[in-house]
Design goal:
Helix content is 25%, strand content 20%. By secondary structure, it is of the alpha+beta class. The strands form three sheets. It has a three-stranded antiparallel β-sheet with strand order 2-1-3, with helices on one face. α2 packs antiparallel against α3. It starts with a helix and ends in a 5-residue tail after the last helix.
């Protein structure tokens, strides 16, 4: 009996789905008979239960929407800029450093001095003044020179780092104020001495 009751409710709801409101009447007669009526009140003498059911809202119509087109122009990534990176000089442990090579201070015939890697520089020709038979320089017999060798002494160990730094400054000056091939040769020599100082015990 209860199953038939629920089936009747489903059928009545299906018939009335198009109406604005559905009124269901549950009628119980004096002998206990149960009836379900749609929009029809129960007859007199029966027990009546009334229920109003609102229909579900209608689903909105589906309208496809085209995707909006972007008017923004694609941006290009800026071109990569190559940056030259100078490699850092290698780090040398103090225990691996060695003293710099020996350096010599050389004195010239005219009491000038300079620093050199060589203890015995090559002889060089010093020009001599020549005169004629009568002793006049205007009637000189030509050009003459005298071969001389500069006298050099080794720099003491306690002053070796300071002397190498002095040597580096001398070469740097001749490089920066020189011209042509001579300037290029002095630049290479400056870089050699600079590296020697940095990697030796003088660079601690």
């Amino acid at each position: 009996m209860r199953g038939l009751f629920f089936i009747a409710i489903v059928l009545l709801l299906g018939d009335a789905i198009a109406a604005n409101n559905v009124v269901i009447y549950r009628c119980t007669e004096a002998d206990g008979a149960l009836t379900i009526q749609n929009n029809v009140p129960c007859p007199k003498g029966s027990k009546q239960e009334k229920r109003v059911i609102a229909p579900p809202p209608a689903a909105p119509a589906y309208v496809p929407v085209a995707p909006a087109r972007s008017t923004a122009r694609p941006t290009r990534a800026p071109p990569a800029i190559a940056v030259a990176v100078t490699p850092a000089p290698p780090v040398i442990a103090d225990a691996d450093r060695l003293p710099p090579p020996a350096l010599f201070r050389c004195n010239t015939y005219d009491n000038d001095s300079y620093l050199s890697d060589l203890d015995t520089p090559a002889p060089r020709c010093v020009r001599l003044n020549t005169t004629g038979i009568n002793g006049s320089a205007d009637m000189g017999a030509g050009v003459a020179c005298q071969m001389v060798t500069d006298q050099c002494e080794r720099v003491a160990d306690g002053a070796i780092c300071e002397s190498w730094s002095e040597r580096r400054k001398q070469v740097e000056a001749t490089w920066k104020f020189g011209r042509g091939e001579e300037a290029e040769e002095n630049k290479i020599e400056y870089e050699r001495i600079d590296r020697l100082l940095r990697e030796s015990t003088c660079g601690k």
